[in-house]
Amino acid sequence: MQCGTVPGDQASAARAVLDGDMAPGRPHSPRPSRPSRPPRFDVYVAVSGLLSGLLLWGIGLGVRPADYAMVLLGGRWVILLPLAVTAGCEVLRRTTPRTALLVGTAAVVLDLVTQGNLFTILMYTDLMYAAVLYGTPASARRIPRITGLLAVVGTLVPFAVWRVPEALLIGVTVGLVSFAPASTGLIVRNHRDAAEAARLRAEQTALLAEVDRTQAVVAERARMARELHDMVANHLSAIAIHSTAALSIDDAKTSREALAVIRENSVGGLAEMRRLIGILRDGDSEPAATPTLDGLAALVVGARGNGLDVTLDTLPDTTHGQIPAPVELAAYRIVQESLTNALKHACPGRVTVTVAQQPDDSLTVEVTSPYGDRDGPSAPGSGAGLVGMRERTALLHGTFEAGPEDSADGKIWAVRVALPVTDADPAWNRPREPPKTA
Predict the structure, then answer these.
(1) For residue 143, is pLDDT > 90?
(2) What span, in angstroms and rounded, lies between the C-alpha atoms of 380 and 401?
(3) Interatomic CA distance for residues 185 and 86, integer angstroms
(4) Backbone dihedral region of 283: left (phi > 0), alpha (psi from -120 to 50 degrees) or beta?
(5) 162-187 burial by CB neighbour count: b if 16+ within 10 A, else e?
(6) Strand, coil or helix: 177
(7) pLDDT: is 78 or 143 the higher one?
(8) Average pLDDT in the 111-125 region?
(9) 3-state secondary structure of 384
(10) pLDDT top residue among 159 and 71
(11) Which of these CATH numbers, 3.90.930.12, 3.30.1490.190, 3.30.565.10, 3.90.220.20, describes 293-432?
């Protein structure tokens, strides 16, 4: 589908989409966003863990026997140090997860040589979980591997040394404290990343859909603008020129002739406007009575009636039904607009229209008119005609040239267009049935 130009802001957004996560071969791994300050929830978790640990310490409830290494480490008060450090690390579990895990690991190692506190262990498992969930992708990959290896080593080495079943509990404990929360964090992270990727894909799909919709609207507006200009400009230009002649020449016969031409062009312009309104109202992409190459003769006759000295030269093979409909419409409109421009801007002299189908399966349109110094155009113009012709040619991947040049008859203005007749779509070149007659 041929589309118009995308607005700058949407075009940049579309490029960001295509160059970003949806680019082929580029894996998507959303990086977790880290808060600049500790969230309030993490502070609540740290305070709750600290107070709960103090409660267990106050009633003398520990993980290991009360006389475990107390003499070397100075009694029960040393239990509070790893508890406080782990609670402080809980505050940093999302802002600096890797640092919190490293410091928490040191605190747990210290806790191992004391009576221990249950909430120190529990908060450490949360630090392990948070380091995988909120840390970098590299940390999320490495931590479960390292903890899994430690769990295996903690199971096999003690059992190989002591040869008692109770030695297996060391590896189980290491697995529960480190590998289990790390694996849980990895699973939750994968689900979160998948949900985030799905959300981004949905946003990108919506953005591309909006860009496509905008392109379709711009293309349709441009097409309607070309149709409106090509339909009406020819008739209104003739009306303007002949009404000026009727007002400036005090001759009854000339006035009647001018009024006849004005009426003819008014009726023709009204018919074209009704046809365009039918297109807009019915929503059809193209009306049933689309102009074809067979209408060039009538178009030239109308131009002669408007005062142009026009000749039409077409090859016998260039007939309606052998040329694709889009090419026929573009050629007709280009000839129509060229004759309108000649009526407004050309000097007195011969205007020639040549339409031919070339051996290379292209349809060529050439319109030449006398070009020279004039006081001004017979009717005002906006320059949209050349833009419309160039757009029509570009939509069909043809070539367009327009400008003054020298010839044997003097300086002329030449419009030359080459439109490809064949297309990649076989149906485009399929012969059409002739219209049925009543």
Answers:
(1) yes
(2) 22
(3) 19
(4) left
(5) eeeeebeebbeebbebbbbbbbbbbe
(6) helix
(7) 143
(8) 92
(9) helix
(10) 159
(11) 3.30.565.10
382 Cβ partners below 8 Å, 6+ apart?
none
SS3 418: strand
Answer whether residue 82 shows pLDDT above 90: yes
pTM (predicted TM-score): 0.53
> What is the per-residue pLDDT across 19-41, written as a single tens digit (0 to 9) for each?
444 444 444 444 556 788 999 99
Nearest 5°: CA angle at 9, between 228 and 5?
Answer: 30
Task: Return the ∠ at Cα 119 (arms to 117 and 120), rounded to 5°.
Answer: 65
In 24-88 the beta strands, taken as DSSP E runs, fall at: none
CB-count exposure of residue 218 (10 Å: 0-12, 13-18, 19+): middle
Q: How are strands ordered across the β-sheet holding 399-407? A: 309-314, 350-357, 362-370, 410-420, 399-407
Q: What is the pLDDT, as a whole number, of residue 81?
A: 93
Q: Which two tokens stand for residue 216?
A: 């379709």
pLDDT at 341: 83
Percent of the chain scoring above 70 in pLDDT: 72
256, amino acid identity: R
**What amino acid is encoded at 111 in this protein?**
D
The answer, yes or no, to whether residue 273 has pLDDT greater than 50, is: yes
Q: What residue segments make up the domains of the chain, in order of their start?
A: 11-209, 293-432
What pLDDT is attached to residue 6?
44
Cα–Cα nearest to 389, from 412, 366, 370, 362: 366
Beta-bridge mates of residue 405: 412
> Rounded to a whole number, what is the largest CA-CA distance in the chain?
131
- Whether the CB-CB separation of 120 and 156 falls below 8 Å is answered with no
What is the per-residue DSSP string for 146-173?
A: HHHHHHHHHHHHHHHHH--GGGHHHHHH
Which DSSP string do the residues of 80-144 spell out, in sequence order?
HHHHHHHHHHHHTTTTSHHHHHHHHHHHHHHHHTSS--HHHHHHHHHHHHHHHHHS-HHHHHHHH
Pairing of strands 399-407, 362-370: unpaired
The helix/strand/coil state of 28 is coil
